[in-house]
Amino acid sequence: MAEHVDLTDEATLVAALRLTRARIAEHREIENAIVGKLKDLLGEATEARIGGAPVVTYRWTKPREQVDIKALREEQPEVAKQYTRLAPGSRRFVLLDPTEEA
User: Fold this and answer.
1) Is the CB of residue 38 less than 8 Å from the CB of residue 56?
2) N or C: which end of the chain has fewer CB within 10 A?
3) What is the distance between the alpha carbons of residues 77 and 70, in angstroms, rounded to a whole number?
4) By the 8 A CB rule, do 49 and 63 touch?
5) What is the dihedral of CA 24, 28, 29, 31, to 10 degrees?
6) What is the pLDDT of residues 41-82, one digit of tens each?
């Protein structure tokens, strides 16, 4: 398996990815500001309407149960070990900043 590949001839792809991610981040900031304003306007209400038609809901989800694995490992380590399984690893794609040292 090759450790690296030279993308010099495809540098525009990397530049396009950087630009796209920057634009997405800007849009996320705008989205978060708009959602925050709408949540403020909703207050304790669970639904917002325009002209009588529902356009936004803001409701609580059902509580969910989950195992406190840290406590289980401390109090019942053998049981925790018996039910622990190793998930396969995955490759992680990271766009590096060329201005930062590795």
Assistant:
1) yes
2) N
3) 10
4) no
5) 140
6) 999 999 999 999 999 999 999 999 999 999 999 999 999 999
In this prediction the pTM is 0.74
Residue pair 41/48 in contact (Cβ under 8 Å)? The answer is: yes
DSSP assignment string, the chain: --S----GGGHHHHHHHHHHHHHHHHHHHHHHHHHHHHHHHHTT-SEEEETTEEEEE--PPPP-----HHHHHHH-HHHHHHT--PPPP--------TTS--
- The rounded distance, in Å, linking the Cα atoms of 28 and 24 is 6
